[in-house]
Amino acid sequence: MEFFCYHRDRPDSLALRMEMGEQHWSYMDRYASEMIARGPTFSGADGVPTGSVHIVDLADPAAARAFVFDEPGYQAGVYRDVLLRRWHNMLGRTMWDFPGGRTGGDRFLVLGLGSGKATDDTVPDDRDELIAYGPLLSDDGSRWLGTAALIRAPDPKAARAVLTSDRYADIEVHSWQFGGRPS
Description:
By secondary structure, the protein is α+β, with helices and mostly antiparallel strands. The protein has helices at residues 14-19, 21-29, 61-69, 72-76, 156-160, and strands at 2-9, 35-42, 49-57, 79-87, 106-113, 130-137, 144-153, 170-176. It contains 5 helices and 8 strands. Helix content is 19%, strand content 37%. The chain has an 8-stranded antiparallel β-barrel.
């Protein structure tokens, strides 16, 4: 089962985040084979980290809850909250398979939160800039709760346009970059 996890940083937690870096990466190393995508989000104005995205393939919702809540940064208080949802990998690839590579251009996390009838439930025609794309689902996979996308785009407005704006209660756009252990 695939899961979308977004840990949102607490305000003023940058020093603690940096202190927990090696513990975070060591923890994530244990999930390397299950990882579909990962990476930090940043504030647009000053580039300060605002969160951490992980899309993983795990056995079940209990394993996903353990994954997000046992994460060392979460345990230490780096994050203010966690969004955890079942997810479906509509591109059928990992971020490492993205034809655009790890660098070049601006990248964004786009979260459309909704309820009711599913929308954007097919891959957009212009899929070349999509790094990851899929619906956010209830634990049992039966209800659509929104859509999450990682995309390369020229600016936040263009990234936001990947989703049908009037079909969501809220759409968030966050600067994002490929994650993983620094080389």
